[in-house]
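Collaborator request, handled under Task 6.
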Amino acid sequence: MSRMRSFVSFAFAAMLLGGCVSLDKYNALKMERDQYQERLSQAEKEAKSERDQANVLRAQIKAMLEAGGENQSLAQTLTRQNADLMSQLEAMNKKYLEALGRNPLSAEVSNALADLAAQYPDVLEFDATRGVLRFKSDVTFASGSAEVTPRAKEVLAKVATILNSASVAQYDLLVAGHTDSVVVSNPATIRAGHKDNWYLSAHRAITVGEQLRSSGTAASRMGVVGFADQHPVASNASAAGKAQNRRVEILVLPTQAGAPVSAAKASPAIIKDQAATPEVAAPADK
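Structure tokens returned to the collaborator:
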């Protein structure tokens, strides 16, 4: 730009020195030079503005790239964690299905659990065929809560006594939380950390596991998992069916306690399948 301005000034001076010109011609040439200079000045201002904007844009791009790098790293970490959790879920699901197809309990233990369920039919059910204990969530917990009710604590203590007996103590236990298909929407439930049915089912399973542990059940025997609404035992199309699906199960696994701990049993992690989408519905208690 400065070289162009010098050229315009030099050209104007050359025309003056090259010979005499009339006043009108002089004024016309001076006006033309001034117009060139004005346009050059404007062009310089615009160029500076463009450079400034370009610098701002480069800074923004740099910031975005840096943020993108961090986000990419975070995304990769989360992807790995999600893959690990899905692997754990698959292992837990396999154990769950294996346990449902096999009852390792002796007749004596099965009878003791059946008698206990008969004493507390509002809280507990016992599937003698599969050896599965089912705590009814509507009685075991307050609505939208993972805190065990006093009555359920009483029953869990008695269940622990049976599960800690010599003929059962050799086996691992799986505590599995289940919900109906209704999505969690109650703000109080969400504030309590139960952000959706996966969290709620897992938190309830963890709480039941903690109650068993407080009653003397070895933590090394237990795994906990939340299945949300993925393993219904009844149709979610009716209120009665939903009530049956809201449950926490205790399963005696066909594996012996003390065996090497698998990745799925290493910690009571909350496992969430992000691809699962609950049906859209929202009762007041969730």
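The cover message to the collaborator said: "Strands lie at 124-127, 132-136, 171-178, 222-226, 247-256. Residues 6 and 37 are 10 Å apart (CA to CA). Please let us know whether this matches your experimental observations."
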